[in-house]
Protein backbone atom coordinates (compact mmCIF):
# COMPACT_ATOMS: atom_id res chain seq x y z
CA UNK A 1 0.00 0.00 0.00
CA UNK A 2 1.45 3.33 -1.06
CA UNK A 3 1.71 6.23 1.36
CA UNK A 4 2.00 8.73 -1.50
CA UNK A 5 -0.66 9.99 -3.86
CA UNK A 6 -0.02 9.88 -7.61
CA UNK A 7 1.70 13.30 -7.51
CA UNK A 8 4.09 12.39 -4.62
CA UNK A 9 1.92 14.16 -2.04
CA UNK A 10 1.69 12.10 1.15
CA UNK A 11 -1.60 10.20 1.05
CA UNK A 12 -2.84 11.63 4.35
CA UNK A 13 -2.28 15.17 3.01
CA UNK A 14 -4.19 14.33 -0.19
CA UNK A 15 -7.06 12.94 1.89
CA UNK A 16 -7.06 16.01 4.13
CA UNK A 17 -7.08 18.38 1.15
CA UNK A 18 -9.94 16.43 -0.44
CA UNK A 19 -12.12 16.53 2.69
CA UNK A 20 -15.31 18.55 2.52
CA UNK A 21 -14.98 19.81 6.10
CA UNK A 22 -11.61 21.42 5.33
CA UNK A 23 -13.06 23.20 2.28
CA UNK A 24 -15.85 24.66 4.45
CA UNK A 25 -13.40 25.60 7.23
CA UNK A 26 -11.09 27.37 4.77
CA UNK A 27 -14.01 29.43 3.42
CA UNK A 28 -15.12 30.39 6.94
CA UNK A 29 -11.61 31.40 8.02
CA UNK A 30 -10.81 33.25 4.78
CA UNK A 31 -13.95 35.36 5.10
CA UNK A 32 -13.70 35.87 8.87
CA UNK A 33 -12.26 39.39 8.60
CA UNK A 34 -15.22 40.34 6.42
CA UNK A 35 -18.11 38.81 8.37
CA UNK A 36 -16.63 39.90 11.71
CA UNK A 37 -16.10 43.40 10.29
CA UNK A 38 -19.63 43.49 8.88
CA UNK A 39 -21.14 42.39 12.20
CA UNK A 40 -19.08 44.98 14.08
CA UNK A 41 -20.36 47.68 11.74
CA UNK A 42 -23.97 46.53 12.26
CA UNK A 43 -23.47 46.61 16.03
CA UNK A 44 -21.70 49.98 15.93
CA UNK A 45 -23.39 51.87 13.11
CA UNK A 46 -22.07 55.25 14.26
CA UNK A 47 -18.54 53.87 14.22
CA UNK A 48 -19.04 52.46 10.72
CA UNK A 49 -20.21 55.85 9.44
CA UNK A 50 -17.36 57.60 11.25
CA UNK A 51 -14.85 55.24 9.63
CA UNK A 52 -16.20 56.14 6.18
CA UNK A 53 -16.02 59.83 7.05
CA UNK A 54 -12.42 59.44 8.23
CA UNK A 55 -11.52 58.33 4.69
CA UNK A 56 -13.58 61.17 3.18
CA UNK A 57 -16.05 58.72 1.63
CA UNK A 58 -19.37 60.39 0.88
CA UNK A 59 -22.22 59.79 1.40
CA UNK A 60 -20.83 58.03 4.46
CA UNK A 61 -24.09 56.32 5.51
CA UNK A 62 -24.63 54.83 2.07
CA UNK A 63 -21.00 53.69 1.81
CA UNK A 64 -21.21 52.12 5.30
CA UNK A 65 -24.43 50.29 4.38
CA UNK A 66 -22.94 49.02 1.10
CA UNK A 67 -19.80 47.92 2.93
CA UNK A 68 -21.89 45.88 5.36
CA UNK A 69 -23.86 44.37 2.47
CA UNK A 70 -20.70 43.36 0.62
CA UNK A 71 -18.90 42.05 3.72
CA UNK A 72 -21.81 39.98 5.02
CA UNK A 73 -23.33 39.05 1.66
CA UNK A 74 -20.04 38.11 0.02
CA UNK A 75 -19.04 36.05 3.05
CA UNK A 76 -22.41 34.27 3.12
CA UNK A 77 -22.14 33.35 -0.56
CA UNK A 78 -18.62 31.96 -0.16
CA UNK A 79 -19.34 30.04 3.05
CA UNK A 80 -22.62 28.59 1.74
CA UNK A 81 -21.03 27.51 -1.52
CA UNK A 82 -23.70 29.35 -3.52
CA UNK A 83 -22.47 31.71 -6.24
CA UNK A 84 -18.97 31.55 -4.76
CA UNK A 85 -17.60 33.43 -7.79
CA UNK A 86 -19.93 36.35 -7.05
CA UNK A 87 -19.10 36.50 -3.34
CA UNK A 88 -15.36 36.21 -4.00
CA UNK A 89 -15.55 38.79 -6.77
CA UNK A 90 -17.50 41.26 -4.63
CA UNK A 91 -15.12 40.89 -1.69
CA UNK A 92 -12.09 41.01 -4.00
CA UNK A 93 -13.14 44.24 -5.70
CA UNK A 94 -14.14 45.74 -2.34
CA UNK A 95 -10.77 44.77 -0.85
CA UNK A 96 -8.85 46.17 -3.80
CA UNK A 97 -10.60 49.56 -3.53
CA UNK A 98 -10.33 49.61 0.27
CA UNK A 99 -6.63 48.78 0.02
CA UNK A 100 -5.98 51.65 -2.38
CA UNK A 101 -7.80 54.02 0.00
CA UNK A 102 -6.41 52.76 3.31
CA UNK A 103 -2.80 52.01 2.35
CA UNK A 104 -1.50 54.77 0.03
CA UNK A 105 2.15 53.86 0.65
CA UNK A 106 3.25 55.83 -2.43
CA UNK A 107 2.31 59.09 -0.64
CA UNK A 108 4.24 58.40 2.58
CA UNK A 109 7.71 59.19 3.82
CA UNK A 110 10.29 56.42 3.89
CA UNK A 111 9.66 55.70 7.58
CA UNK A 112 5.93 55.18 7.09
CA UNK A 113 6.13 53.66 3.61
CA UNK A 114 7.31 50.20 4.70
CA UNK A 115 4.46 49.74 7.16
CA UNK A 116 1.92 50.93 4.59
CA UNK A 117 3.44 48.76 1.86
CA UNK A 118 3.22 45.69 4.11
CA UNK A 119 -0.48 46.32 4.77
CA UNK A 120 -1.05 46.94 1.07
CA UNK A 121 0.62 43.65 0.10
CA UNK A 122 -1.23 41.69 2.81
CA UNK A 123 -4.53 42.89 1.41
CA UNK A 124 -3.46 42.04 -2.15
CA UNK A 125 -2.82 38.54 -0.78
CA UNK A 126 -6.43 38.43 0.41
CA UNK A 127 -7.61 39.41 -3.07
CA UNK A 128 -5.52 36.56 -4.52
CA UNK A 129 -6.90 34.10 -1.95
CA UNK A 130 -10.44 35.12 -2.87
CA UNK A 131 -9.63 34.50 -6.54
CA UNK A 132 -8.26 31.07 -5.62
CA UNK A 133 -11.46 30.20 -3.75
CA UNK A 134 -13.47 31.06 -6.85
CA UNK A 135 -11.12 29.00 -9.05
CA UNK A 136 -11.17 25.96 -6.75
CA UNK A 137 -14.96 26.14 -6.41
CA UNK A 138 -15.32 26.29 -10.21
CA UNK A 139 -13.06 23.25 -10.57
CA UNK A 140 -14.90 21.33 -7.83
CA UNK A 141 -18.33 22.06 -9.27
CA UNK A 142 -17.30 21.61 -12.90
CA UNK A 143 -18.22 25.16 -13.81
List strands and helices in order, with pairings.
Elements: H1 11-18, H2 20-43, H3 45-54, H4 60-80, H5 84-102, H6 110-141
Shape: globular
Sequence of secondary-structure elements? HHHHHH
> Into how many domains do the coordinates divide?
1
Helix content estimate: over 70%
Return the structural class: mainly alpha
Q: Helical stretch count?
A: 6
Q: What report would you give on this structure?
A:
The chain has 143 residues and is mostly helical. It has one domain (11-141). It is built from six helices and no strands. The longest helix is centred in the last third of the chain and has 32 residues, at 110-141. The radius of gyration is 18 Å and the shape is globular. The two termini are 34 Å apart. The mean pLDDT is 94.
Structural features:
single chain, 143 residues, mainly alpha, 6 helices, 80% helix, 0% strand, globular
Give a brief rundown of this model.
With 143 residues, the chain is mainly α. The chain has helices spanning 11-18, 20-43, 45-54, 60-80, 84-102, 110-141.
Amino acid sequence: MSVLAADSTPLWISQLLASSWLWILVRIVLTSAYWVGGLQKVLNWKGAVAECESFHLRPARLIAALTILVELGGSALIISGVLVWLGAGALGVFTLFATLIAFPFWTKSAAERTKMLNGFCEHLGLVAALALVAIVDALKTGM
